[in-house]
Amino acid sequence: KWYKSEKIRVGKTDFKHYILYHISSSISIIIDEACITMSLATIEADLNITAIETQWIMTIFYLATTMAAIPFANLGKRLGIPITLFTLHVLCAVSYLVGFFFQNLGMLLSTRFLNGMLSSGCIAIRNNVIAIYPDKADKQFIKKCQILAAATQLFAPMLTMLLIAKTHWNYAFLLIGSLHLLSAVLIIPFENPPKDKVKFDLLGSILIGVSSSCICLTLTFLGQLNLWAFGGCLVGSVIGLIAFYFAEKHHENAVLPLEIFKNPLSDIFWLNLINYSGNISFMYIIPQVLLHNGLSQIELGLVPTGAAVIGIIGAITVMYVSSKVINRYVLTVSYSLITVFLILTGLILNQKTWTILLMSVFFIFSMVSASNMTYPMLIHSVPPQFSQKVSGLPTMSRTLGNSISLCLLSCVQYLVNQYVDNFYFGFQCAMWMISLLFVVAIFITSYRLGNAEYEKNKKGFKISDIKQIKIGGENHEEQLLKEIREEM
């Protein structure tokens, strides 16, 4: 067809022909997650609501993403990637443009649910685009995409916060909607890959969404000391998780493929989830503290720009170091540094602004180093023939980590502030609690994570540390070890 490009084809796409779509689709997500999160304090004051209610503006976005990501990814396989992405981007644009007009919490939450649900499809299918379209000779395609996404953070959040400061926070919705329209146009030239009549696991998607929502509501009601509602949601969470387990156990195309959800896949999934928990804690806590300390919206917009500069340096550094040293060594060091910096940042939250920003630099560098490693590790943690089964797991770990962490952070902050009349102490306790997750991450990388096949030429690689790979009753380990010994 005349509108299809010969240069954007499955397995033959050069990175330069993919750049524009990746930039436009990345910026829309970056603005939503960074700028709307940083504007929560302003939205709280504007709508006259509590902090524990305000965080639901982001939490409901992530919960909708958790519920819809994998069904939309499967829809893309059935209908075709370009046409599905085009439709989702257009619908996303409409949902954001409608949200521009709402100034009521109830209507805003309804819009945010639609934003998250439709955006999830764009993100999940884009993961599949990155997996199947690149030229097979380009082994660094995913890392180039990560560096490009980090580069867009140099200007996107800063310009958006400038727009918000000069106008109103709802203009972010107008900008995001416009970017989705642009993405819809840019996806048109992509070649249609062969369609796959994969079955939908709609029940599993609904159950994981309901279970996650119950967990988040449990934390919200705990923060409000509404014990009856807390108990009811806690029971609902347990029932939902049990039902989800049995629904997934025998499903051919499960949302969470239990057949392969074992070490190393399961461990890397939890590491990726912890990464997002740490990242969202920074995006939630630091802007509110800096605004309280007197920074303006425009000055606050410079924070993610500075973070992006550090992120690019971290991404390039980890690309080099991880090419020489096995992943688990690099991750163990990164998580150790993150834990230290979280504890120290918590201690100095009530100090001068420059000390908070300085500590944030060290935290972001370590955080980006870890995050840029676990994403490709998650995609490549299973043999190639099973890669389709794990394409939705990065999105699931991201949304679960973000939604549950936001509720946990606001719950801790709100509870502490009920008994301690100190603006900073609630945030400090929340930050120290998140640091405990990274202690768990250190344990996983030190004692659970092994070597991967593709690390055989790196320092620290041991054949004995390769984890046993068993999928569908097949043992791939003996053949794998034989191939590695022959190459070495």
TrEMBL record:
InterPro entries: MFS, MFS_dom, MFS_trans_sf
SUPFAM superfamilies in alphabetical order: MFS general substrate transporter (SSF103473)
Membrane-topology descriptor: Multi-pass membrane protein
Keyword set includes Transport: yes
Highest rank taxon of the organism: Eukaryota
Subcellular location(s) per record: Membrane
Transmembrane intervals: 20-43, 55-76, 83-102, 114-133, 145-165, 171-190, 202-222, 228-247, 268-290, 302-322, 329-349, 355-378, 399-416, 422-449
Pfam short name (any one): MFS_1
Keywords of this entry: Membrane, Transmembrane, Transmembrane helix, Transport
GO cellular component, one term: membrane
The Major facilitator superfamily (MFS) profile domain, residue ranges: 18-453
GO molecular function list: transmembrane transporter activity
Entry keyword Transmembrane: yes
PANTHER family referenced in this protein's UniProt entry, alphabetically: MAJOR FACILITATOR SUPERFAMILY MULTIDRUG TRANSPORTER MFSC (PTHR42718:SF9)
Protein name according to UniProt: Major facilitator superfamily protein
Organism expressing this protein natively: Trepomonas sp. PC1
Species lineage: Eukaryota, Metamonada, Diplomonadida, Hexamitidae, Hexamitinae
